[in-house]
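User: Teach me something about this protein's shape.
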Amino acid sequence: MLIFATTACFICIYYFRYLALSSGPPDEPSSLTAEFVASYVIVVGFNCMWSNGSPQQIFLQLKSLSNNNEVDILYPIVYDDCYNSSNYAYFKNGIQPETDYEVSVWSTNDLGSSNTVKLTVKTPKIFKLEFSPKTITFNGNQAIINFTASEGQISSLSIQCCLEVTGTCDYTAYAKVDDTDRQVTCANLPTGDLYVFSLTAFGRNRQGSYYYLGIARVTLSRTEVIEPEGEFQATNNEEN
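Assistant: First, the predicted structure itself:
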């Protein structure tokens, strides 16, 4: 009889402990990190945690630290169970360069709200990718292009060297670009005279995904004589 009573008591204790754990607000999200930050976008990663038995919804808020105003708020889907799973969110509205922001993440269900997790991020200056006719050299069926890039690490670079009239192109992709190496080559130019050269730069986040950084274009003829004037200062560019 005593053994039965003791066993029943333990069962009651664990039962009420289960009810206490499974009948309340969800646990706060964890592992909030800045995955990619540019002058036009902020990408954050986070893990949602235990929902305590009721479907939870994750809220993400972006606030400017200069005036404490809300810039954007996101409402991802309602999760039945996403315990310790990785998630990503993209802030794209109202992002300004060289600005301090605070990202806040919290979870709610029909029983309440979790604590709020916060992260401070700062956006860089606008990325600039530049080159000019003075920085392009023809060598047979090749074109050697010198360029400058600022305010962002280039992870990959796409190059198009096209005939202006027909649109026939030579494509080259550099999977990895060294910060000190600012020279690329179009190795197989289509036969012709007037070309449109395009460089497109991409960054890469911690998970390996690529993001657009910027693009620059220059039109140049083989017969056009351009004398470099000292160290070049590229002026032709298109900002994102």
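Now, about its shape. Helices lie at 2-22. Confidence is low (pLDDT under 50) at residues 1-20, 228-240. If you'd like, I can walk through any region in more detail.
User: That's plenty for now, thanks!
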